[in-house]
Design a protein that fits this description.
This protein has two domains: 196 residues, no CATH class; 130 residues. Helix content is 76%, strand content 0%. Helix 1 packs antiparallel against helix 2. The N and C termini lie far apart (67 Å).
């Protein structure tokens, strides 16, 4: 293969419009600008309505959440198509066949309608919860507040809704893009894994770009989960917080584990095919010996086949090395450590 097989310029989601020029610095600056813009908007509303916006942790963490999710979407948008061009050499198919498999998956990932559907699943419940709490005279305020929050939230106010709704809208779109991307990324990995590998011995190393992207995605998710822990310390009921954190960590583990298992199964199947070919060669040589018709080059064939067997048995069917997995496991533990620290501090104060 020479050159890129997939044109990244034809793909882009709603977040791609935020990053009209390529570059990591651009993604960081735009994400920082959006998060600061929302923060100062909330501050202005708080000043007008005499709300305790800056005295609470919500404003800071929500702004950072916007920055983090937009920055990661920008970086993923920057590299994702390139990842599939990088791993092209692992598969023994022509460019047209490869594009026919990969491009429909990319179309689904960048489909704005799918993103909106996932955003609605994530955002609508939060819109309803905040409306139940902050709409004055809401009949559901006490019930929702008791179920969700550690302490009684602020007094009902439409101004609080004006502060929270823009954050919820941006975060819902961001999480919608993340979840839609992951679901269709997993589907795309599954479809590509059905293609034949060009060289099974080298396939794991040729798929490292895909593995690195998955590792980075999982780590980014766990960083977000850590900041969720910090937010819940000031707001959510302990049981609700633990349950929500468990969901966050579970999703992060699936982010990493599911694509890994798909690729591992595909490589393991390809390895077994190679071993089956070698066993067939041994069987053929055994048949010649039994028939008293051993060829003159039988010792050389046997030596070559033995070497092939040794090489085949050493084929690595795991795309990620242990150090990368260790880093991801460490990242997955950090949110729980933050929660354990908070619980320990609560117990000490209670004692």
């Amino acid at each position: 293969m020479t050159g890129e097989t997939i044109d990244g310029c034809r793909y882009g989601g709603w977040f791609s419009e935020l990053f009209p020029s390529r570059g990591y610095l651009r993604a960081g600056l735009v994400s920082a600008g959006a998060s600061l813009g929302l923060f100062w908007y909330g501050y202005a509303v708080a000043v007008v309505g005499d709300l305790k916006y800056l005295t609470e942790i919500d404003g800071y963490l929500a702004s950072f959440a916007v920055f983090w999710t937009l920055a990661w979407l920008g970086l993923a948008d920057e590299t994702y198509v390139d990842v599939w061009n990088d791993v092209r050499s692992a598969f023994d198919v022509d460019d047209g066949t490869y594009r026919a498999v990969v491009e429909p998956g990319l179309d689904r990932i960048y489909d704005g309608r799918r993103v909106l559907a996932y955003a609605a699943v994530f955002g609508v419940p939060w819109l309803l919860i905040t409306a139940a709490i902050y709409v004055p005279d809401s009949p559901y305020r006490d019930l929702v507040a008791e179920l969700v929050f550690e302490e009684d939230p602020f007094d009902p106010s439409y101004l609080w809704l004006a502060v929270f709704y823009p954050y919820i809208a941006v975060l819902a779109l961001s999480f919608g893009a993340v979840l839609n991307g992951f679901v269709n990324h997993l589907g795309l990995v599954n479809e590509v894994s059905d293609l034949p590998f060009r060289d099974v011995r080298r396939a794991a190393s040729e798929l490292e770009s895909l593995g690195g992207f998955t590792i980075a995605s999982g780590a980014a998710w766990f960083v977000g989960a850590t900041f969720f822990v910090l937010w819940q310390q000031a707001n959510l009921d302990g049981t609700v917080a633990i349950g929500a954190l468990a969901v966050f960590v579970f999703v992060g583990v699936v982010f990493f584990l599911a694509p890994q298992l798909v690729l591992h199964d595909a490589l393991a199947d390809a390895k077994q095919d190679v071993l089956a070919e070698i066993r067939a060669e041994y069987e053929e040589m055994n048949e010649l010996v039994r028939d008293d018709e051993p060829p003159e080059n039988l010792p050389l064939r046997l030596e070559v086949t033995d070497r092939r067997l040794t090489g085949a048995e050493a084929i690595d069917t795991w795309v990620y090395d242990l150090s990368s997995v260790g880093k991801l496991v460490a990242a997955s533990v950090i949110p729980w450590l933050a929660l354990v620290q908070e619980l320990a501090a609560t117990i000490r104060l209670g004692g």
